[in-house]
Amino acid sequence: MASSEFKALAKNGLWDNNPALVQLLGLCPLLAVTGTVVNALGLGLATTLVLVSSNIAVSSIRNFVAESIRLPAFVMIIASLVTCAELLMKAYTYELYQILGIFIPLIVTNCAILGRADAYACKNPILPAATDGLMMGIGFTLVLILLGGMREAVGQGTLFSNMHLIFGPAAVAWELVLIDDYQNFLFAILPPGAFVAMGLIIAGKNIIDQRIETTRKLREAKVVSGSKRVRVTGKIA
Amino acid sequence: MALLTLSSPHSKGSNRTANMMRWVILMCIPGLIAQTWFFGWGNVHNVVWCSIVALACEASVLFLRKKPIAFYLNDYSALVTAILLGIALPPLAPWWLSLIATAFAILFAKHLYGGMGYNPFNPAMVGYALVLVSFPVAMTTNWASPGPLLELGLPSLSATVASIWEIAPLADAYSGATPLDLYKHEIAQQTAEVVRANPIYGDFVSLGWEWVNLAFLGGGIVLLLLKIIPWQTPFAVLAGLTLPALVLGWDYDQFTPLSIHLLSGATMLGAFFIATDPVSSSTTKLGRLVYGFGIGVLTYVIRVYGSYPDAFAFAVLLMNFAAPFIDIYTQPRTYGYAGAKRGAKAKENS
Predict the structure, then answer these.
(1) What is the pLDDT at residue B94?
(2) From the CA of A187, how many Å to the nearest CA of chain B?
(3) B312 FRET partner, CA 20 to 30 A, in B170, B220, B272, B334?
(4) CB of B95 less than 8 A from some CB of A
């Protein structure tokens, strides 16, 4: 796989077509469990795992499944992989599994996964499909962590609490107490707070995109005014 | 030189936003005085503090949005939001509670939706609902007890301020349950007579609260007479609260009596000053009746069957949701047309 293709996939998954910020897929678990960083990270890792493996599986059977029955086949694959992820979490991070509860099996209904299977993996070879899954998964996880961090900081006045649920006993000391004797701000922990925080993140992304766009236009305009060409239509490759 | 206007309307009022808002603020004053008389300096402090926060937030957002700051500050709308919050929040609420409520009201509920005139929800009630959901303990334990019940009288201004800024807490005796809250909880085990014997119900309806509500009623009636607020909304709110209280809640041994519904809690402030917000309420005459009635009924339902003692903020916000929909179905007949154009289809065709 060429590095330009890898770059395009990475940019697409992490920023331009981020499943959480741009496609707005999988919002239900995103809004429901991002009360703390550890919950967000747990769900993000599980989703990434399922996304990568489902993309690989779908890509490897893409030549054997008839077009008309592809969706049931994808759903079967995703459902079995989610079951695997659930069993893995039950075995290794039991406490986190109990906190996330129903939202682990619900990964199966995350449209981002079926969306990538149908839009990308079933039309591309295994390696690009796996990369796409990984990048989309990381993009999703980063948004989850950002949202979890915002809500944990505002809601409880801490950051990285309970990280030992994923990283073992050594991570107990990672907890940062931002404000002592903090009165819990319930709104940030409850789902409505997630909507507000999510809206702010999307607004932030739009502002950055607009800035990039204006500077790009300015730069292009300079080139045009400096050149001797009378008329420019489209981009010259 | 005044130009001759050829088409109607020929007579115009000179009502501007600032004028309207100034009257609303003025008519809040009797209620605020009654609150201060019975419950101490807390509300006055909160009104001042919320106003400072609101003006600072408003000015900084206007600066960020590159809007004329003086022009928008002079329409007093941010000040009205702040004053309503200062009156509505518990008198002894800590300073950060009022700060969060006011800042959220101005920044999120007002300016993120586009500023003055664009907010679908009443900003003051959004701020109130936010802190009510977020800080249930602070919002229930900071209601001041009425002065006549206190042996030592009301706390002084400096003691109140020290308590609000969390420098020196007041004794627990200075705060207590509100009449609505108490009735709802006690009536499960007691008869109406026993519950009403509690001194906070006084000789009339509920000590202190009745005069506060009557003062807001008086201020509201002046606003009605000046035609600053329409009569439909407050009338429908009170009707919507009265009707279910008479039909469903006639048994005072089980439900809060009508008199306490009307003259305690936020009823009169809500009916005349909050539900009548011209931006977030319905805009047609019939629509205002429906909108107000909905607020009244929802207030009754949440007060009696819900888990919150008072419900005005939630009722207003829920009906704010419905206001655009009510507007579509209550359009009046346009002059020159045979019938009114109502409903989604009429809107598509026009």
Answers:
(1) 92
(2) 5
(3) B170
(4) no
